[in-house]
Amino acid sequence: DAPSLAVVGVTGAVGQEFLSVLSDRSFPYRSIRMLASKRSAGKHLTFEDKDYVIEELTPESFKGIDIALFSAGGSISKQFGPIAADCGSIVVDNSSAFRMDENVPLVIPEVNPHAMAHIKLGSGKGALIANPNCSTIICLMAATPLHRHAKVLRMVVSTYQAASGAGAAAMEELEQQTREVLEGKEPTCNIFKQQYAFNLFSHNAPVLSNGYNEEEMKLVKETRKIWNDMNVKVTATCIRVPVMRAHAESVNLQFEKPLDEDAAREILKNAAGVVVIDDRASNHFPTPLEVSNKDDVAVGRIRRDVSQDGNFGLDVFVCGDQIRKGAALNAIQIAEMLL
Ligand code: 2RA
């Protein structure tokens, strides 16, 4: 039988993308329960030519649900994820709530599918599976194929993160600010307490005692868990940039053994979920606009790191759609692995 689904946070940017991806990939389901806060309960939505009434999320929402897709923030996941799992549902959670829990697999299907091999649909036993943070997914989609060939010892990441990472309201505010600035008006700054349009700033996540922000430490910690390598050295600087829905990331890699740029380019050309855009002659490399609304992560600027001896280092530039592969697509691909 096709599984019964629940979508928690269905009115949010990722919730809506869950539905788009389910439809695009003809994901088989026998029913879908559309769940959101009390504020949205009762509203109608049409999905695949069927009318649905959005229901308020309650502890009873998961009876008879095989797979529950969550993207409603960490507190909702913390409160309802375990309830759903106890009900026998397999939860795919897009929040950061359980990512570092040692009993919860943190999965990118193209990277570490084995991490969830013990979780079976129809076993009656519920489970929690965590979707990594978007900037982690996009980075590791490019870095892992190379890591598999020449073991990454150190990775330095600079991210250029889209508004979508802060939600639909941030995307709306970026557009509004851009108009206001062009019209010579004061920009409306509700989501971020500073002007975003024609500007960029250090990621809005809280800054920790070590001077890194939470977004940067997610990249550090999630990489180690996903690669199952507590020794890999990772550092990151995450920046919010005035781009709508695709993240860009500059990634420097230091390897245990030589890996030259031509070999790296071939590896990436053959990597699942990756497209190489690396045309030096026409200076055509990945851009956020070119990957927006697309499944694949684009990699370019593949070059030997001249600061390293021989071929022990590479620099690459990666772009990926934050809402799609950075969140909804990855989660649905996890759900597909359960079928
Ligand atoms: C961001 N990674 O881009 C976050 C979204 N989960 O802000």
Automatic annotation (TrEMBL):
One of its GO terms (molecular function) is protein dimerization activity. It catalyses: L-aspartate 4-semialdehyde + phosphate + NADP(+) = 4-phospho-L-aspartate + NADPH + H(+). One of its GO terms (biological process) is diaminopimelate biosynthetic process. Its EC number is 1.2.1.11. Pathway: Amino-acid biosynthesis; L-methionine biosynthesis via de novo pathway; L-homoserine from L-aspartate: step 2/3; Amino-acid biosynthesis; L-threonine biosynthesis; L-threonine from L-aspartate: step 2/5. It is an enzyme of class 1 (oxidoreductase). The keyword Kinase does not apply. Residues 4-119 form the Semialdehyde dehydrogenase NAD-binding domain. Keywords: Amino-acid biosynthesis, Diaminopimelate biosynthesis, Lysine biosynthesis, Methionine biosynthesis, NADP, Oxidoreductase, Threonine biosynthesis. It comes from the Eukaryota. Belongs to the aspartate-semialdehyde dehydrogenase family. Homodimer. This is aspartate-semialdehyde dehydrogenase. It comes from Nyssa sinensis.
